[in-house]
Design brief:
About 50% of the residues lie in helices and about 10% in strands. It is mainly alpha-helical. Helix 1 packs across helix 3.
């Protein structure tokens, strides 16, 4: 078991240092890895809850439709109907952050919102 504060450190997992166009450094950190995993969790949640050719919606579909309606109402009230083009971004950001914070409840996992 690691020390308590070691779980918040951003560490390099894979790094590529190439002398192309000056100094080119491409690294995969634990922050990027957890972000990719959370992205796939968010996409998976939405793909699982989609109602492809079903007449009666599932419980997950109803929950996501309700959250979309709530976020849509908040966006309309705050930024107006003329700026609804930002709704998909705000909806995606909301679910990414909420899933990131919920995975932070698992012991000894890295919470990406600590590095913002």
């Amino acid at each position: 078991i690691n020390l308590t504060l070691e779980q918040f450190e951003v560490t390099n997992l894979i790094g590529i240092n190439a002398p192309i166009l000056g100094f080119f450094n491409l690294t995969l950190t634990n922050l990027a890895l957890y972000s990719i995993v959370l992205l796939f969790l968010t996409l998976g949640l939405h793909f699982v809850s989609s109602n492809n050719r079903k007449l009666v919606p599932s419980k997950w579909s109803i929950a996501l439709e309700s959250s979309f309606a709530s976020i849509n109402t908040m966006v309309r009230d705050q930024i107006g109907t003329a700026n609804e083009v930002y709704l998909p971004f705000i909806y995606s950001l909301f679910f990414f952050i909420i899933i990131a914070n919920l995975t932070g409840n698992v012991p000894y996992t890295y919470t990406i919102t600590t590095s913002i």
